């Protein structure tokens, strides 16, 4: 392998590989290397995620990033590439208060031509009969402040995909164009230097224009690898690379836990899983309950549900993850004490359900506005901040990074469907992303 | 000492003590405790700072925060309290390019009635005769890209103060009003709880409304101290407290180094120090050179200069400081290789000057926009992000924290001079601070 590239990309998750593909496609004459500490594509947090997608956002930035990416994923699968994509929909079940307060956001999304349907309690009784909608004088519901159901919203261009298959798609096409990937290769550090070094020990000095000139690798590839541009797409490991050279990677790592429950031996859970009232697939959509963001994902091919919820307080943030992915484990008590009591309040089918599998990974949180970013700094392009909705924006992000590479932070990126997007909206220096209001 | 307070403030630097004073003054019936890990006021980074002040900002937020604070400091000293305040001015020496590009910002500041004078090279030759303004064909200047001087701007309501004296002033007045301070008391952790606990192990659960209910202390005070509100004013230690409960403290710690050079045995340095052309004190103003933010501070009572510069790249960021303040040391090589070559290029008086003393501390950087913040979150008010200009805004910050305590994030704070300020401008949720353009 050569030790000198035009571009080195750190991270072979969906983001890094989407960047790799569009950079190579847009700049075929440039030599590009992707490095990743793991042994294959998407072995970090891409593979540990829920991997859902939706275009239901009030923020016009979130909308264009997700909508064009989803269109690309849908058309790619239509063209014969299996991305494990199922357009099964999202169903937000809301309390009366949520349903009432959110009407304005629903209207805003409808105005933006997002396919969104609303259901009242009558509709829900018919379409999702086992959902408990009223809790009366139940002591437990009062203790837990479990709200009655007021209605629901259903997003159509929403569903799930397979993050490994999507990553493989980008990787295959990147390799086909002549790109290189080095697995099992950890980036020990970024190399701080100058374009024209004087050869004095201690460079760069304060009076020099310092920049990142490459990476120091260990693993299958070792030593210094020089690059004219380094793309940082390392998710929760951004800060680990950037803190030592005094650049904020703008992410915090937050543990995300998923639990599976099998429907195989429960006719009631089978019935719930095979609900045919919402989509053509005849499968329960992704259901978000009105309490603590508790959610239910049907994975019909395994006859199982994936379950999780949102902890907004008292779940540690890490500047860089303190546990490795292998040591970062899901907590049975989190299922038992936090998730399960909410779940079985709304769906009695889950009474006594025990998790068959559980795992944990990390969200890559941009704590400023929970929206992604792309910015240039000292010879690098830094991308990330998915904050739980990164995969569904991955295609747009790769195209934006390519545009920034060619034209700088003020580039107009051309997204799928021919829509253009001003890249500097998601920089930090010129940040002007519209904040998301649909957060339930 | 009681173990139950209305308000506990973490941090007895200038920010924490200004908060303490205004909170106690505004809410005399409330019990307030300040805790700090050190043995006296301002023993963290307040005391290790340059402790300069200026009102020369283009951002209207920076202007009102600094201008009202400086007015308060000036009037306080006028009333007979020694704050070690010297209004000796700031002199920005600029390259031709800087001088030309910055005219619009100078004009903006003049429009905002900021006392600012400009000097051309003719003025500078007369007023600061030893400053080298032209480097001709000098090989070293070309190598280091040391620019010729194009002019200067002089800020009048600018100077230095004594951070320990200012902290003591706030502390004394806080104690006089009945506030309590516990030194040598480290906050081991914030306590995550709920207002009405159920008494089940593992609280707060996801379905409860969690909040911070106090601190766990070790040192002179030990154990749980309950508080209805906890104010976090811990500077670079914000993240250490907040990361474990999943709230971003929004600061990065960055090492700041200062070096002193004595003028006692050098008539040339004495002449420079006692320059009488800029202010009534007959002392050289704070001089910022046109290269790498290299600066010269005259400390006339010790007949010495304090010297430093800005390293914007390759100086590590820490989420929380990796070194203690005692182990965080200034680097002689930083003086020799980075600072000194710039300094003696402009002022030949410093030829062969060796530092008599040197020390290091940390900047508390808000990497988003280098401007301070105050925000509410889960039973806390979190303040910080001074980013190198915190002390000069300390008085306004304390008043804003008090306003947020009484009226929430959307409070209108009344600053010194009777000017009002919308506190939510410096929150994160509603952030709308005007970015600073005067950054040279």
**Chain pair forming the biggest interface:** A-B, 52 and 51 residues
CATH class placement of the largest domain in chain A:
Alpha Beta
Shape of chain A: elongated
Largest sheet properties of chain A: 9 strands, mixed
What percentage of residues of chain A falls in helices of 4 or more residues? Answer: 25-40%
How would you describe this structure to a colleague?
The structure is a homodimer of 440-residue chains. With 440 residues, chain A is of the alpha+beta class. The first copy, chain A, has two domains: 4-51 and 164-250 and 368-426, FAD/NAD(P)-binding domain (3-Layer(bba) Sandwich); 90-155 and 252-365, D-Amino Acid Oxidase, subunit A, domain 2 (D-Amino Acid Oxidase, Chain A, domain 2, 2-Layer Sandwich), CATH 3.30.9.10. Helix content of chain A is 26%, strand content 26%. In chain A, the strands form four sheets. In chain A, strands 4, 5, 6, 12, 13, 14, 15, 16 and 17 form a nine-stranded mixed β-sheet that branches. In chain A, strand 18 (373-377) and strand 19 (380-384) form a beta hairpin. The first copy, chain A, is elongated. Chains A and B meet through strand 16 and helix 10 of A and strand 16 and helix 10 of B.
